[in-house]
Design a protein that fits this description.
Its cofactor is NAD(+). Homotetramer. This is 6-phospho-alpha-glucosidase. With 450 residues, the chain is of the alpha/beta class. It folds into two domains: 188 residues, NAD(P)-binding Rossmann-like Domain (Rossmann fold), CATH 3.40.50.720; 127 residues, L-2-Hydroxyisocaproate Dehydrogenase, Chain A, domain 2 (Alpha-Beta Complex), CATH 3.90.110.10. The chain is built from 18 helices and 13 strands. The protein has a nine-stranded mixed sheet, with helices on both faces. Strands 7, 8, 9 and 10 form a four-stranded antiparallel sheet that branches.
């Protein structure tokens, strides 16, 4: 059982490998391969990965490569987590829209669309290479962002690919809820959820007969944020501490905005990313166009990992800040376990609608709970959704579909329509200004637009 991690130089790689190693028997994992085009970066990350495997007394073989055939040969699972352009381009994705008074975020708004244009064709290359070299019954489990755009491109360009597009944010929300309520194990929660990637709602969350959404409303009214009290205090003292992925300085406002969104629309619990669409003016006003989340990550998680590697190589000591382990790594590893062993466990995944939401078009890539087994996703159908949520989803889908069409056709007009259609952009003239700046910034990565 070979598992290949595409984007082996990611700061998330050590945590993912730890999650794999902790499930070594369930996965029957014999080898983990790290594959990246940035050899120097990946080799540094591999130092931490090697340490983790030894610390856990794992029998898993570690292979580190920049060669496609070596990476994919006979692999059963491919965990994809590419970041095309790395954090330097994420910084542009965030800062260019903010310069024009619009949301600057790596997966939402114009930043997400820009990131999508960089990722579409590299993702198709991964699919083709995996198809050429990997085991015939392989599965690609794709974390590569922006997942909504990537999954739509896969649907259009590689409809027969053995790929499951996923996102851990809904599970991370459940994990944060569990920490806020204190006595709730998020892994034992049951839930109903619908939407698009980074654009969805929990309609029901229960735990041992308890209505968790009701308890969240009460907690928000009391505390004012969906973060545990101790996290907020810790962030005030050390804003660059990255011990918890979703508990750093830039996330405080995100979790505060959960209360605002639930005050406005109390029926469902929103995905945190909906703040960028529903509260875009407020988000921009509270953003610093000179210091965005990209800068924060580079000065915390990135800095911690690579300084930790240097420290380990000099002293033989490794710090816990050198890697992240939690819902992100556990989610993808647990999904692989469910698929491999045909467990039919429930996960939230991104799949073609095909009637699963009856009043949404079949060709929309929706995010819904599904039972995951050896043949992939058995999506759990739901009833028709309300007009408000349907309208929001359809506007977002139109923006994403236009972007994919524009990428394939090399059409400036369609990409402009995509930017103008996005709810985070108040004017087509602003959309054009942002797009023109993005074209200049992405010359090395985007297809030519005419």
């Amino acid at each position: 059982m070979i598992i290949t991690i595409v984007g082996g130089g990611s700061t998330f790689t050590p945590g993912i490998v730890k999650s794999i190693a902790l499930r070594e028997k369930d996965l029957e994992a014999t080898e983990v391969r790290l594959f990246d085009i940035d050899e120097e970066r990946q080799n540094k990350v591999a130092v931490v990965v090697d340490y983790i495997l030894k610390e856990l007394n794992s029998n898993i073989k570690l292979t580190v490569t920049t060669d496609k055939e070596t990476a994919y040969k006979d692999a059963s699972f491919i965990f994809a987590q590419m970041r095309v352009g790395k954090y330097a381009m994420r910084e542009m994705d965030e800062k260019i829209p903010l310069k024009h008074g619009c949301v600057g975020q790596e997966t939402c708004g114009c930043g997400g669309l820009a990131y999508g244009l960089r990722t579409i064709f590299p993702m198709m290359e991964v699919i083709d290479d995996v198809e050429k070299y990997a085991a015939k019954d392989h599965w690609i489990l794709n974390y590569s962002n922006p997942a909504a755009v990537v999954s739509e491109a896969c649907r259009v360009l590689r409809p027969n690919a053995r790929i499951i597009n996923i996102c851990d944010m809904p599970i991370a929300i459940l994990e944060m809820i569990g920490k806020c309520l204190g006595d709730v194990d998020y892994l034992k929660m049951d839930y109903k959820y619908f939407g698009l990637n980074h654009f969805g709602w929990f309609t029901e969350i229960t735990y041992e007969g308890r209505d968790i959404i009701k308890e969240v409303r009460e907690y928000l009214n009391e505390v004012g944020t969906l973060m545990p009290r101790q996290y907020v205090e810790a962030m005030k003292k050390n804003p660059f501490k990255e011990g918890e992925r979703h508990a750093s300085q830039s996330w405080i406002k995100v979790w505060n905005n959960m209360k605002t969104m639930m005050d406005l629309f109390p029926d469902y619990l929103p995905n945190t990313y909906l703040q960028y669409y529903l509260l875009s003016k407020d988000v921009v006003e509270h953003s610093d166009a000179e210091w965005t989340r990209a800068n924060e990550v580079m000065m915390s998680r990135e800095k911690n990992l690579f300084e930790g590697v240097d420290h380990y190589l000099k002293t033989g000591e490794i710090t816990k800040d050198a890697f992240y382990h939690g819902a992100h790594g556990n989610f993808i590893a647990d999904l692989a376990v469910s698929i491999k062993n045909d467990l039919k466990q429930k996960f939230i995944v991104i799949e073609p609608n095909n009637g699963n939401i009856p009043n949404i078009d079949d060709d929309v890539m929706v995010e819904l709970p599904a039972l995951m087994g050896k043949n992939g996703a058995e999506v759990i159908k739901i009833d028709a959704i309300p007009t408000f949520h349907k309208g929001l989803m359809e506007q977002q889908v139109a923006s994403e579909k236009l972007l994919v069409e524009g990428a394939i056709e090399g059409s400036y007009a369609k990409v402009l329509q995509s930017f103008a259609m996005n709810k985070t952009v108040p004017s087509a003239l602003i959309a054009k200004d942002i797009l023109d700046d993005m074209i200049e910034a992405n010359k090395e990565f985007w297809p030519e637009l005419k």
